[in-house]
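Much of our argument rests on the idea that a fold can be written as discrete symbols. This step matters because it turns folding into a mapping between discrete strings. The record that follows shows the chain in one-letter code together with its fold in token form.
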Amino acid sequence: MREVHASLFQSVDGVVESPDQWQFDHFDADMGAMMTEAISPIDDVLLGRVSYEQWSAFWPTVDGDDPFGSFINPVRKHVASRTLTDPLAWENASVIPSALESFVADLKEQDGGRIAVQASISVVRQLLFAGLLDRLTLMVHPVVAGGGRHLFEPSDPVTRLELVRSVQTSSGNVLSTYAPRS
């Protein structure tokens, strides 16, 4: 069975929204190498509508030498949206034709490499609480963002996770990977 992994940039105060506003000065070579390693087994990407709209306006315009751009542009992208319709303009992108949870459960059963959620806070939350997320990596930057959306909310159910890996980068980022606890 294929695994679903999600990675989010996070500030020390728990903000995961708009990391481009606060993470850029701590994105170091160590983090770049770890992210390059993490994307190599990915065959399918899951995106929410907001992330799709932001990324589809940016990534196709990036130079082909950019490591993430050369990954994200050609990879299969599945977009969770109630308002977008196919055909989508971005290469290899399509709207998920059914409920997200059933689509992902079916996708996990198909042949292929890893499935990854990129950005898309709502998609990460939905898959985690549905028991469909196999790994969650939080890339904590040593910065207080001060405001913005958090991954978890006070009304969330108690969800036990197990730390499976933790690495500190040269600029003080801490990448912690969690799995659902059995």
Remarks:
- The chain has a mean pLDDT of 95.
- Residues 131 and 180 are 8 Å apart (CA to CA).
- The chain has one domain: 4-180.
- The first helix runs from residue 29 to 39.
